[in-house]
Design a protein that fits this description.
Largest sheet of chain B: 3 strands, antiparallel
Order of helices and strands of chain B: EEHHHEHH
Radius of gyration of chain A: 18 Å
Shape of chain A: globular
Shape of chain B: globular
Number of strands of chain B: 3
Number of helices of chain B: 5
Oligomer: heterodimer
Strand content of chain A: 5-15%
Low-confidence stretches of chain B: none
Largest sheet of chain A: 3 strands, antiparallel
Low-confidence stretches of chain A: 18-36
Strand order of the largest sheet of chain A: 2-1-3
Distance between the termini of chain B: 21 Å
Largest interface: A-B, 51 and 65 residues
Mean pLDDT of chain B: 94
Helix content of chain B: 55-70%
Radius of gyration of chain B: 16 Å
């Protein structure tokens, strides 16, 4: 980036003073798509005893390559499966990336937050 | 900026001023992350509610996880900041991997300031938008090189 020296001056104190760059109203993230619950219903049929899930939601910021990278390196998914889940997040707005006991789903969610992904925990039957 | 591989290492060669911009952003990020919960609008995305329809459960999750997340995000950012003392940064794969979540978090904060909410929102043609895109380019380049290992 050639204009970096100029940019350096512009961005000074810019992140910590939101109004400089044009602040934004609170109240996001915004969910911008409606999804079917088909994926969760499938899970319920095959695993009725395991009632919690970790969901990862689409956002406009994270690169597809990064989401896929996180799914591979953190969950250990093979490349194909990581890609499939990433595309599901991108196209359907969300994907179930783990299913199991609540504490474990919260641990995964915390890890996703550390990676900067938007993740939530839900009871499979409520999601 | 040039991103390349040298054996197992990722090598970042910054152009004039780039590492200074990045260090400035990281320093500001440390302030944003460390400020009181909810005091910065970007916290909604850096530390999202873990339960969508259960405020009590979300608050409890925050109570148990927030301090640790803040500490780990800050420690990670501080490590990256140290590496930026050189214009040419050599990173082993583990060190390079630690840059990726920070680059994402920086973009999340900038996206908040730029009002980027939806997939179709355009990146503004401003210095801030340029930095946002540059960070994405850096992250993407590093991921591609890490995947070669």
């Amino acid at each position: 980036m050639q204009r970096m020296a100029v940019v350096a001056q512009l961005v000074e104190r810019w992140l910590v003073v939101p109004d400089v760059a044009g602040s934004s109203p609170v109240g996001r993230p915004i969910l911008n798509s409606t999804q079917s619950d088909a994926d969760l219903e499938t899970f319920l049929e095959v695993a009725p005893d395991v009632p919690w899930v970790t969901l990862v939601w689409n956002d406009p910021v994270n690169l597809m390559s990064y989401v896929s990278y996180v799914f591979r390196t953190y969950f250990g998914f093979p490349k194909d499966e990581a890609e499939r889940l990433m595309l599901q997040v991108h196209h359907d707005g969300r994907s179930v990336v783990a299913i199991g006991p609540r504490e474990e789903m919260e641990r995964h969610t915390e890890a996703m937050h550390e990676f900067g992904l938007w993740a939530t925990v839900a009871k499979a039957s409520d999601s | 900026m040039r991103v390349s591989r040298s054996g197992p290492e990722i090598v970042l060669e910054f152009a004039d001023g780039e590492s200074g911009v990045l260090r400035s952003l990281v320093d500001q990020y440390l302030e944003v992350v460390g400020t009181d919960a909810g005091a910065d609008p970007s916290h909604a995305r850096l530390f999202p509610a873990a339960y969508r329809d259960d405020d009590a459960a979300a608050e409890e999750f925050t109570r148990y996880t927030r301090a640790g997340l803040v500490d780990r995000k800050a420690a990670n950012a501080a490590q990256v900041s140290l590496a930026l003392d050189e214009e040419r940064v050599r990173l082993d794969p583990d060190a390079a991997a630690r840059w990726l979540p920070l680059l994402t978090d920086l973009r999340l904060v900038i996206a908040d300031r730029l009002g980027i909410r939806l997939d179709d929102d355009e990146i503004p043609d401003t210095a801030a938008g340029e930095v946002y895109a540059w960070l994405g380019h850096l992250q993407e380049s590093m991921i591609l090189l890490l995947e070669e290992t």
